[in-house]
Amino acid sequence: MVNKNPQKSREREVRRGGASRPESEAPELDIRIVDVTRVAKVVQGGRRFAFRALIVVGDNNGRVGVGLGKARAVQDAIRKATDRARANMQRVEITGSTIPHQVIQKYGSAKVMLKPASPGTGVIAGGGVRAVLEAAGVRDVLTKSLGSPNKLNTTYATFQGLCSLKDINEEARRRGKSVADIQPFWRRGNGSDNN
What we know:
β5 and β6 form a beta hairpin. The strands form two sheets. A four-stranded antiparallel β-sheet has the order 1-2-3-4. A four-stranded mixed β-sheet has the order 5-6-8-7. The protein contains seven helices and eight strands; from the N terminus they run αβββαββββαβαααα. The protein has helices spanning 6-15, 74-87, 127-136, 151-163, 168-175, 179-182, 185-188; strands at residues 30-43, 46-58, 63-71, 90-91, 103-107, 110-116, 123-124, 141-145. By secondary structure, it is an alpha+beta fold.
């Protein structure tokens, strides 16, 4: 069957995210698959199996999103999760290569501590916590999972923890202190400590 209306086919291609998008418009995103799990739904005739995918998307420059997708095929679940993660992207506060302050975030029964680290430390984290931090562009951070080791909940706890970070300039103004007083010790003294 020949398509008689080329205009409609072009519109359909644009809606599907076809080749009509210029390269400069689409930013390069870091997509990480954290977890793909087979899940079951019990129906009258037995079990119906599907796949659940947990995806982290970030631009390595302060924006990150987490998405969850479920479908009968793995590729469909990954595609759904990626689309949801892109729609869910949030800007997070990053100071240099680390986070501005320590934060402890709870999500479900998972509890994650994120702590700023001096330059050169690296990302001391594992699983979904590492994926979220690296996709956000954090290069030096210490973490500890304090609650449940569930990948889904630790990933969401990390994402919410990053979203709850405060701007160091706003916090200094709110407390009535200078920025240097509330910065971590490795960022305070720029050669002024020499005796």
